[in-house]
Specification:
The complex is a heterodimer of chains A (246) and B (446).
Chain A lengths: L1 E3 L7 E12 L2 E12 L3 E5 L6 H9 L6 E7 L6 E4 L11 H11 L5 H11 L15 H13 L5 E5 L7 H16 L3 E6 L2 H7 L2 E6 L2 E6 L1 H7 L8 H11 L3
Parallel strand pairs in A: 1-5, 4-8, 4-9, 6-7, 7-8
Antiparallel strand pairs in A: 2-3, 2-5, 9-10
Helix pairs in contact in A: 2-3, 7-8
Chain B lengths: L1 H13 L1 H23 L6 E6 L7 E4 L2 E4 L1 H4 L7 E5 L2 H10 L4 E5 L3 H6 L10 E4 L3 H39 L1 E5 L2 E5 L2 H13 L4 H20 L2 H10 L16 H31 L2 H6 L5 H28 L9 H23 L5 H19 L8 H12 L3 H13 L5 H26 L1
Parallel strand pairs in B: 1-4, 1-5
Antiparallel strand pairs in B: 2-3, 5-6, 7-8
The chains are: A alpha/beta (246), B alpha/beta (446).
Chain lengths: 246, 446
C-alpha cells in the first residue's frame, strides 16, 4: 500500500486501482478501481458471491490481491480499521478485556485510556465487565466495531455490519456510524440490504461477479437503471443488474 | 505475544470444566497407576481337591520317603487355595465363578509317582471356566505353579537317584523291603580285583579277571558322571540374561513412563489444537494476522502455552506416582527436560491438527482420533507382528512424537537407552516438522 495524505478535506483517503483476485479459474474481483473520500460513507452492494467480502478483505490486508494497488493512509493497514461480518472477539473475555487486548496488540499509546474512551463512545461502559458470550448480538457487534476503531483508523471497513441485528439495534448502529463520519472517519461497508445503502450511503459501488458495474450516488444508480416514478433503489438495482446481464 | 499468552490464560481460567479436567485427569491417573503398581497383585482363587486316601501321600523311594503333600503346597504360592472335599464340589465352584480354576489330585497320584504304576505317569487335573478372560488370567499362573512343583519334585527324585549312584560307585548301605544291605561299591570291587591280579594268579584266573578289571575301571571313572546327566535332565536348559540396547527398565517404572507420556500427549495435543482452532471459531484469526501478529508468532505462542500448561501437569502426575512407586528423585531435573521436550513436540502436533479444523470440537476429535492409535502403535513390541508390519509401525511411530517422547521420559526416569539427548534431538526435529505443517495449514485457511 502507498500512503495518501489523510489531512486534506474531501481528498481521497483510500485509492484503489486495478484490484484483481482469482481463486483458481474463478475471478472473485476483477480490476476494480475506486476512491474513498475523507468522512465519506460508501456502500458496496451486490448479489451474493459478487466479491464484496473478498474486496473488503483485500482492503483490510487479510487477503493479498493478485494485482492492483491500494493507497491507504500511513501506507499500511494500521490506519484502516476492519470489522468482519461475524464478531471477531473472544466470548470468554469481558468487553473491557477484549478491547484492552486488541488495544495492546494495536500498540496504541495508552491502552487503558483508549478502552475507556471506546466504551463511552460505543455506549458499552455499563457492560464493560460482562463476558462477550453473555451479550446480545447487537452489543457483540458494537464491541466488534469498537475493536476496529481502537487504532483510530482514517478508514473503517465494515462487512455486513447490520446483518444479525434487529431494527432497533440497526438504528443505534447507524447513529453511531454517522457520528464517525461526522468526525471525518471514512466508512466503507458491504451489504446486500439495498434499502440500508440508500438510506445511509453517500455513494454506492455495485459489484457483480467481481466486476465493478457502478460507482456513484444512489440517485445516480436509479438514473442509470432508467427507473421512473417512486420505485426504490432495490428495484433500480435489480433492473440495473438485469440490464447488465447479471 | 505476551498479551496473547495472557489472553489465553484468561480464557483457560474461565473454562472451569476444561481446567478441572486438566488438573483432575493426571491426578486421577497418577493415583490409579500408583495404587495399581504399589498394591500386591491379588492371587486368583483356585479350588484344591486332594483325593489321595489318608496316610497314602507318602511314597518310598528305596530308603527315602517323600511326602507328596509337601510338593502340592508349592502349587499355591501364587494362588489362593480353596480346599474342597470332592471333584463334584470343585466343578460346581468353578462353574459358579466362586473360584477361577480347580486343581484335582487323583487318588492314584502317589502310587504312580512311587513307580508302582510304571505304565503311566501321574497326572493332576486342572479345571478352568470357559470364560476367556478369567481363563487367561489364571491359566498361566496355574501352569507356572505346576511347572515349579514338577521341578521341585524332579530335584528331590534326582537327589534320591544321585544317592543310589554314589552308593553303587563308592559303596555303602541301602534299605530295600525293610532290610538293610551293605554294598561293596565299584571302586572297592576294582581295588579287590587289582589286589588279586597283583598276586600273579594263574593265567586262567587272569584271563577271567581282566575283563572284570577293565569294566570296573571304566565304571569307577565314569559312574559318578551319571549324576551330572541326571542334573541335566532335571533342568536341561538354563538361562543367561543379556540386555541389549542399554539398561533394562523395571516394568513398573516403565509403566509410569508410559502413563505420564500418554497424559502429557492428551493434555498437550488437545490444548494446542483447541487453542489454535479457537482463534478460527471466534473469527479472530484473520483480525490477529492482518498485521497485529504474524501466523508464525501465533503458532509459537500456542505451542508455548500448551507446553507450559501440560509439562507441569505431567510433572505433578510423575511426582504423584513417585509417592507409590520408588523413583530416583535425583533425576528430577532430567524429568523436567524430558517433559518439556515431549510437551513441545506434542504441542507442535496439536497446532498442526488445530490448523486443519474450523472448530474446537472438530480439532479435539481429530486430535483424539489421531493420537490414541499412534500411542498404541508405538507400544507394539517387536516380534508380536510380522517384520514388515513392525518396520512400518516403527517408521510411522518415528514421525509422530509419542515414541520419542516415551523414550525421553523413560530415559529420564530409568536411565535407559536411547539416551535422553537422542530422544530430545528426535523431538526437536518433530517440532520443526509439525511447526512447518501448521504454518502451511494456516496459510491454507487465510
Amino acid at each position: 500500500m502507498t500512503p495518501v495524505d489523510p489531512g486534506t478535506p474531501y481528498a481521497a483517503v483510500l485509492v484503489v486501482r486495478g484490484i484483481t483476485k482469482r481463486f483458481g479459474a474463478r475471478t472473485a474481483v476483477g480490476g476494480v478501481d475506486f476512491d474513498v473520500g475523507r468522512g465519506e460513507l460508501l456502500a458496496i452492494i451486490g448479489p451474493n458471491g459478487a466479491g464484496k467480502t473478498t474486496l473488503l478483505s483485500i482492503l483490510a490486508g487479510v487477503q493479498q490481491a493478485d494485482s492492483g494497488t491500494i493507497q491507504a493512509p500511513g501506507g499500511g493497514v494500521g490506519r484502516v480499521g476492519w470489522v468482519p461480518q461475524h464478531a471477531a472477539v473472544y466470548s470468554k473475555l469481558t468487553v473491557a478485556e477484549n478491547l484492552r487486548l486488541f488495544a495492546r496488540l494495536e500498540q496504541v499509546g495508552d491502552p487503558d485510556a483508549t478502552v475507556e474512551q471506546m466504551l463511552e463512545q460505543t455506549d458499552l461502559a455499563a457492560r464493560a465487565h460482562d463476558e462477550l458470550g453473555r451479550l446480545s448480538g447487537g452489543n457483540r457487534q458494537r464491541v466488534n466495531i469498537a475493536v476496529g476503531l481502537l487504532a483510530d483508523p482514517a478508514v473503517l471497513l465494515l462487512d455486513e455490519p447490520s446483518a444479525a441485528l434487529d431494527p432497533r439495534q440497526r438504528q443505534r448502529l447507524w447513529a453511531f456510524i454517522t457520528t464517525l463520519t461526522d468526525r471525518g472517519t471514512s466508512v466503507v461497508f458491504a451489504t446486500h440490504d439495498i434499502a440500508e445503502a440508500e438510506r445511509h450511503a453517500d455513494r454506492v459501488l455495485v459489484l457483480a461477479d467481481g466486476e465493478l458495474l457502478f460507482d456513484g450516488t444512489p440517485t445516480g444508480l436509479k438514473a442509470a437503471a432508467a427507473v421512473v416514478g417512486d420505485r426504490d433503489l432495490e428495484e433500480a438495482f435489480v433492473a440495473f443488474l438485469k440490464a447488465g446481464g447479471h | 505475544m505476551r498479551w496473547l499468552l495472557v489472553k489465553d490464560l484468561q480464557i483457560l481460567r474461565r473454562s472451569k470444566m476444561l481446567v478441572g479436567l486438566l488438573i483432575a485427569y493426571p491426578i486421577a491417573i497418577a493415583l490409579l497407576i500408583g495404587l495399581a503398581l504399589s498394591s500386591a497383585p491379588s492371587k486368583p482363587r483356585v479350588a484344591f481337591v486332594d483325593e489321595i486316601p489318608p496316610g497314602q501321600s507318602t511314597i518310598a523311594l528305596g530308603s527315602t520317603k517323600l511326602d507328596v503333600s509337601s510338593y502340592t503346597d508349592k502349587l499355591f504360592t501364587a494362588t489362593t487355595e480353596v480346599p474342597l472335599a470332592s471333584r463334584q464340589q470343585a466343578l460346581s465352584e468353578v462353574r459358579s465363578g466362586a473360584v477361577l480354576a480347580a486343581l484335582i489330585i487323583p487318588p492314584d497320584f502317589a502310587i504312580k509317582l512311587s513307580g508302582a504304576g510304571f505304565d503311566s505317569s501321574p497326572t493332576v487335573e486342572v479345571v478352568y471356566n470357559g470364560d476367556a478372560l478369567k481363563q487367561s488370567f489364571v491359566r498361566s499362573t496355574v501352569t507356572a505353579q505346576l511347572a515349579q512343583a514338577n521341578a521341585a519334585l524332579a530335584e528331590r527324585l534326582n537327589q534320591v537317584a544321585g544317592g543310589y549312584i554314589e552308593t553303587i560307585a563308592d559303596g555303602g548301605t541301602i534299605t530295600a523291603l525293610g532290610l538293610q544291605f551293605k554294598l561293596l561299591g565299584i571302586r572297592d570291587t576294582l581295588g579287590a580285583v587289582d589286589r588279586v591280579l597283583a598276586d600273579k594268579p594263574s593265567p586262567a584266573t587272569r584271563r577271567e579277571l581282566a575283563p572284570v578289571q577293565s569294566f570296573m575301571s571304566i565304571g569307577a571313572t565314569n559312574f559318578t558322571r551319571f549324576k551330572d546327566v541326571l542334573s541335566a535332565v532335571e533342568r536341561p536348559v538354563g538361562e543367561t540374561e543379556t540386555v541389549l540396547s542399554g539398561r533394562r527398565a523395571p516394568l513398573d517404572t516403565f509403566a509410569v513412563a508410559v502413563a505420564v507420556t500418554v497424559s502429557l500427549m492428551f493434555v498437550c495435543v488437545l490444548l494446542a489444537s483447541g487453542l489454535i482452532a479457537l482463534e478460527r471459531e471466534e473469527n479472530t484469526f484473520s483480525r490477529l494476522t492482518r498485521g497485529l501478529i504474524s501466523p508464525g508468532r501465533l503458532l509459537v505462542a500456542k505451542v508455548a502455552l500448551a507446553a507450559l500448561c501440560a509439562a507441569p501437569v505431567a510433572l505433578v502426575m510423575l511426582v504423584g506416582v513417585g509417592l507409590f512407586v520408588p523413583l530416583d528423585w535425583g533425576r528430577v531435573g532430567l524429568w523436567v527436560i524430558a517433559l518439556v521436550g515431549g510437551a513441545l513436540a506434542f504441542a507442535a502436533l496439536g497446532v498442526a491438527i488445530g490448523s486443519l479444523a474450523r472448530e474446537v470440537r472438530a480439532a479435539s476429535l481429530l486430535a483424539f482420533l489421531l493420537s490414541l492409535p499412534l500411542a498404541f502403535l508405538a507400544l507394539v513390541p517387536s516380534g508380536s507382528v510380522a517384520p514388515a508390519v513392525y518396520h512400518t509401525i516403527r517408521v510411522l511411530s518415528a514421525v509422530f512424537p509419542f515414541a520419542p517422547a516415551l523414550e525421553a521420559v523413560n530415559a529420564a526416569i530409568n536411565d535407559t537407552s536411547p539416551s535422553l539427548g537422542t530422544a530430545l534431538a528426535h523431538l526437536a526435529g518433530l517440532v520443526v516438522l509439525f511447526g512447518v505443517a501448521a504454518r502451511l495449514g494456516l496459510r491454507r485457511l487465510r
